[in-house]
Amino acid sequence: MNEQFNISASPHIRAKDSTGSIMMWVIIALLPTTLFGIWNFRDQNAWILVVVTVAAAVLTEFIYEKLMHKKVTISDFSAAVTGLLLALNLPPSAPWWMGVLGSVFAILVVKQLFGGLGQNFMNPALAARCFLLISFTGRMTSFTYDGITGATPLATMRADGSIANVDTMNMFIGQIPGTIGETSTIAIMIGAIILLLKGIIDLRIPGTYLVTFVIFITIFGGHGFDWQFITAHLCGGGIMLGAWFMATDYVTSPITKKGQIIYGILLGVLTGLFRLFGGSAEGVSYAIIISNILVPLIEKVTLPKPFGKGGEK
Amino acid sequence: MGLLTFKGGIHPNDGKSLAKDKAIVEILPKGDLVYPLSQHIGAPASPIVKVGDQVLKGQKIAEAGGFVSAPVYSSVSGKVKAIAPNFTPTGGKVNSIVIENDGEYTEAEKLATKPLEELTKEEILNLIADAGIVGMGGAGFPTRVKLSPKEPDKIDYVIANCAECEPYITADYRRMMENPEELVSGMKVILRLFDNAKGVFAVEDNKPDCIAKLEELTKGEPRMEVAKLMTKYPQGGERQLIYAVTKRAINSSMLPADVGCVVDNVETIINIHHAVINGRPSIERVVTVSGDGVNEPGNFKVPFGISQRELVEAAGGLKEETQKIISGGPMMGFAMFTLDVPVTKTSSSILCLTKDEVAMYEPGACINCGRCIEACPSRLIPSRLADYAERHDEKAFEKEFGVECMECGSCSYVCPARRQLKQAIGSMRKIALANRKKK
So what's the pLDDT on residue A312? Predict the structure, then answer.
């Protein structure tokens, strides 16, 4: 018989989850809000923007890796996740070429030029969104819903200084103007529950983020502990999509457990600051990318103590 | 009371159902027997026989090469054929005594022993040393040294490691099912050495039948108890086991005795029983042969020195498609390139797999998911330590406590990018430890 046996260092068995399967689950978890967004903004053909943006992200990764003679890694789905997240962060009225430009920026500049998967110091989708926001402020902040171009509920609240003109139920379901993937809290929550149940994310980052944010706006929001006000803030803007799908991005969040708590608190404070006192009604994207930059520092001060070295048992 | 455990760890598919219910079968060797002179940690044993000498079963053929060392006994009667380097399961060549089996099993005189009550502590320790007993769970540390801490009175726990947390292996399980009296008797011997200690049989809760058996047997023993552990890998790691039972934590530079503990595994304790009560040196053990690559998985009682090929043939032989053969368990065992190696004092299992999961996947980039941190029982950051190792950054490796790694392999197991984390950390750790010694 053939007596050629394989040799390798232990361990000789492996768990089932792979990078590809994790990314696949993130895509599956994003489907409810994606499909809702496509339906919600069907009058503006949001589906075209989603498809073009995802395709551009995957294609950019493919072409760059081919040209650089690197191993093509599109089968790990990470480029697809980036493209999808970017699409969900675009207004449905954005032209297709903005999706393409954003995807190329995300994959080429933010991800590949820094060394590819695992090496980017900022969430590529959010960095691209901020890039587009700065470059095309008008187009990126014009939201049309049901044929009417108007302010998002968050902007309305900020302009009025009250919650009189917003309907929190509509905000919860998602029938409001906004970016393609951020409007429906319920659809995002379904995805978040999928990720929590699959063990892909845990509550450490999103939990501390949202709790800190609620505490912050309760203290500084000028409404005290007003349940309506808090709900409107949680269901409005990008905080739900950001907290569950972008702040939890493995690559750009701290790897240490204590660091994740600090990171969540930082996100909550920054988002509250930007929303209440900043120049625009929104603040999630900037809060996340600023916190991304602080991750190495956070990790440095939260290095865990090894077992038996006087740390927690 | 909840189950005792530690933080971290993994839950691999345990594969134990393959051999769990197969009673221990005794095998007599047909071919030559090979006894490596270094089957333990410490100085190699030195041969006291010459080529051509006639030896008996249970006759000492090599004596301890120092205090931290262990003698070697012949497990058959026959003629010394050669004293030459031979391959061992870990892949290296070690000077070994080869004995041609005459098939008679003529026994040598037993070790001089007395009833337990009449033995002094010194006599017990000497018997254990003389019998050549070493830690048979895999480390091979001479048991006599382990049982001689500086202050024996400060030892308050003697823990029998009955966790058997490595997947597939069922040798200790069968021992507990079939020879629990010998295990309890061996514990009694160890407790004689430590007046202030209680004996704890620490068993994972996936072996309720063993727990019941041991509880029954220790009913009338005020100094013994059974502890139920959560089933989790590496529950049987010494540091994890001590923590689970006593809530005392030790690090890489401490010994169990520093926190009042002595830990021995099932097979070792049974060998202690045979040496001290029956005067029989350490010449045999139970080995599990399992995995989907072997035709009839089972548990076998075999003399040391028997060829692993003979043992696998006794288990129905290998299947055609077998890709990988492992000495030990799938988490910490050694992949072997040949079956022509002997069963040694530390061979707990031969695992034959038709699928090499390591070869199936190519390592990718770290995505910082933190699963390795979650799994690491030593609470390190394996992904980062592996980066340092790959860059050979010894300073950073030391600073982030790389030497605290115990190479359990949990990080490599969970890594979704399939990085060879343990391999990288393990090799850097060896270098760092060697450089520490130089200083």
Answer: 47
Domain extents for chain B?
A: 112-278, 371-438
Does A306 contact B383 at a Cβ distance shorter than 8 Å? no
* Structural domain boundaries, residue A169: 19-301
Residues B141, B143, B144, B146, CA torsion sign: positive
Residue B298 — pLDDT band, cuts 50, 70, 90? very high
What stretches of chain A show up as alpha helix (H) in DSSP?
19-40, 46-67, 78-88, 96-104, 124-135, 137-140, 153-160, 168-173, 185-197, 204-220, 227-235, 239-241, 257-277, 284-301
Annotated binding site of B for [4Fe-4S] cluster: 366, 369, 372, 376, 405, 408, 411, 415
Residue B239's closest CA among B378, B410, B333, B409? Answer: B378
A305 → chain B, closest CA residue: B379
Total domain count, chain A: 1
Q: How many Cβ atoms are within 10 Å of A66's Cβ, its own excluded? A: 10
- Name the pTM for this structure: 0.92
Q: How far is A197 from chain B (nearest CA, A)?
A: 15
Q: What pLDDT does A188 receive?
A: 97
pLDDT digits (tens, 9 = 90+) for B63-115: 999 999 999 999 999 999 999 999 999 888 999 999 999 999 999 999 888 89
Q: What is the CATH number of domain B112-278?
A: 3.40.50.11540
DSSP assignment of B279-328 equals ---S-EEEEEEESTTBSS-EEEEEETT-BHHHHHHHTT-B-TT--EEEES
Assess contact for B343 and B300: CB atoms under 8 A: no
List, for chain A, all residue ranges whose pLDDT scores fall below the cut of 70: 1-2, 310-313
Q: In CATH, what number is assigned to the domain containing residue A222?
A: 1.10.3430
Contact list in B for residue A121 (CB cut-off 8 A) is none
A11: in domain: no
Counting one residue from chain A and one from chain B, the pairs whose CB atoms sit within 8 A come to: 170
